[in-house]
Backbone:
């Protein structure tokens, strides 16, 4: 059994899954994490009033990905499938809708057999008239909402690839883990503790000096500057942090030109999300514009609101918790606002969509939860997508360098699942396999 050291930078899903595989093989693993917690963009808090988990980052399990389902099933962790009614606010009118069916009229026309183009260019080329205007608007909202992507930049080829990958795991289905995503992180931590993996939290890596077979990492810790050395390192930093180098982290020597070029063809999506906890789920009594139905079983509320166009509840559980989602351009409109102002904007949005006095909504509010991932220096965005002409860039970004520097994280996923927890886990496992293979060379 080998006993070589390995340094892993980043304690997100990719880093934790790689650490498990490498430690199981007998390697001595040290994980460096800038935050004072593990999980990365998985960040769960607990609302003490409702005694419920509130996820501020990743929340949904998308589809039946084995990377997540197998550990949960092995430990009999309850998982609830999202269910309920889909509602839309169209021209100020609340009504049941099926925007996904509408959007699919457009999205299914995308192809990767023609030259790559942006989503907006695709719309202009394939749907030049007004016949599909409603479907085009919902499809554009879906691309910017689900993918947190700028429709003027995102690659159609990448969107096609992602849709195919989702179909293979029933990615249109969504699930909640009992106790939030922290439950899943706790599973990984339990395994890592048994394997004696070492964690250095609050250790912000500032510099990586390397040559083949030797790594020196300089980090700022609570005790001051600290140096770590090893023959190899796995870097699982988010794309936004890598793109901010050398301001965020310095490589010596610099990363190869092809990796820098790959980063330019990838983008970190912007998202602002606010979770509101109320005394009661007051929206249940809201009626449709024709008074025929109520929102009692609402799961999602979709609109064209300029700040928070998407809202979801905890259905099928009838809980007084609702989350507002501001992706892409909506998030940019909120940039620079204080947390209090952003929460206030979310209340304005929700009250307007439900046609309920804002003062009533405020009077029901118990707590609001918010984390600014774009301003967070350890994430610098939500999750990644591919820009036009960026095919192959994820593979280039994830490729090892001289058997010494290895890379993982959702932005390096090539299976079509980047932007997801299971995609991140898969890249950690892929990188671990590459590291183990390098031991025999």
Residues:
């Amino acid at each position: 059994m080998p006993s070589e050291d390995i340094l892993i930078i980043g304690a997100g899903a990719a880093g934790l899954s790689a650490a498990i595989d490498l430690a199981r093989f007998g390697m001595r693993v040290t994980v460096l994490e800038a935050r004072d917690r593990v999980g990365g963009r998985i960040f769960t808090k607990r609302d003490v009033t409702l005694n419920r988990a509130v996820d501020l980052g990743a929340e949904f399990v998308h589809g039946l990905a084995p990377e997540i389902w197998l550990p949960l099933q092995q430990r009999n962790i309850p998982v609830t499938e999202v269910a309920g009614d889909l509602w839309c606010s169209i021209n100020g009118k609340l009504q049941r809708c099926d925007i996904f069916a509408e959007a699919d009229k457009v999205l299914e026309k995308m192809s990767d057999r023609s030259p790559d183009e942006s989503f907006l260019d695709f719309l202009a080329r394939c749907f030049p008239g007004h016949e599909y205007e409603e479907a085009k608007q919902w499809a554009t909202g879906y691309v910017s909402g689900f993918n947190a992507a700028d429709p003027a930049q995102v690659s159609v080829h990448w969107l096609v690839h992602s849709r195919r990958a989702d179909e293979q795991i029933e990615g249109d289905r969504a699930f909640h883990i009992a106790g939030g995503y922290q439950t899943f992180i706790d599973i990984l931590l339990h395994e890592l503790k048994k394997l004696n993996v070492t964690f250095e939290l609050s250790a912000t890596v500032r510099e990586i000096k390397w040559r083949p077979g030797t790594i020196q990492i300089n980090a700022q810790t609570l005790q001051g500057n600290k140096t770590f050395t090893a023959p190899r390192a796995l870097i699982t930093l988010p794309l936004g942090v890598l793109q901010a180098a050398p301001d965020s982290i310095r490589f010596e020597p610099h990363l190869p030109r092809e990796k820098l070029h790959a980063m330019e063809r990838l983008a970190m999506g912007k998202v602002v999300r606010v979770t509101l906890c109320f005394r009661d789920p007051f929206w249940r009594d809201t009626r449709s514009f024709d008074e025929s139905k109520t929102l009692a079983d609402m799961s999602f509320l979709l609109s064209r609101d300029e700040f928070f166009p998407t809202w979801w509840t905890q259905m099928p559980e009838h809980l007084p918790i609702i989350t507002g989602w501001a992706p892409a351009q909506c998030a940019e409109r909120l940039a620079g606002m204080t947390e209090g102002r952003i929460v206030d904007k979310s209340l304005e949005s929700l009250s307007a969509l439900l046609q309920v006095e804002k003062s009533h909504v405020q009077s029901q509010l118990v707590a609001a939860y918010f984390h600014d991932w774009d301003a967070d220096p350890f994430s610098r965005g939500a999750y990644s997508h591919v820009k036009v002409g960026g095919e192959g860039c994820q593979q280039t970004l994830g490729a090892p360098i001289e058997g010494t520097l290895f890379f993982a994280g959702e932005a390096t996923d090539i299976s079509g699942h980047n932007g997801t927890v299971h995609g991140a886990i898969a890249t950690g496992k892929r990188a671990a396999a590459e590291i183990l293979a390098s031991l025999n060379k």
Observations:
- The mean pLDDT is 94.
- The longest strand covers residues 204-211.
- Residues 80 and 176 are 5 Å apart (CA to CA).
- The domain at 5-41+181-268+384-438 is CATH 3.50.50.60 (FAD/NAD(P)-binding domain).
